[in-house]
Amino acid sequence: MTYATNSPFENLDVVAASTRLDDLQVKLEAKQKVQKLNQALDKLKGYDAVFIDTPPALNFYSRSALIAADRVLIPFDCDEFARQALYTLIDNIHEIRADHNDDLKIEGIIVNQFQSRAKLMQRVVAELKAEGQPLLDATLSSSVRVKESHERHQPMIHLDPTHRVTQEYIALYDSLAR
Prior knowledge:
Elements: E1 5-6, E2 13-14, H1 20-30, H2 36-43, H3 60-68, E3 71-77, H4 80-99, E4 105-114, H5 119-130, E5 135-141, H6 144-152, H7 156-159, H8 164-177
């Protein structure tokens, strides 16, 4: 049984979240089924890559995703609250790697909603780099156009292929695909 649906975009299938996941989470947690996603992905055929997008909270589903993943890309909005959450997440990733998934690797931290002229953002990025955090060189700028792509349910590459943020996403993908 598969829950993937074809999207209107070539080579992209989507498994969307559902409100039924709340009820399922309780049942899966009670039976300690945190490996279910990993087992399901092991059976999956016909895909070159699977990207799992989780909410920012470390809950049952995001833990399951980290157990199933080979690599994790951490989006980071440059502020102090996000910074503290980042440290907690990195600690949790190390714990999950030690307990469940020896192969899990932090691919990097991608600075999201970046404003190059904002001194706070420049300072936070410089401090994280000085700490040795795995920040990627690529950043994703802030733009209302991204919100428009969400509203229209259309990837930026289809909505506005020449937009600066679209080009940043392409550069990020190319750097990760190497």
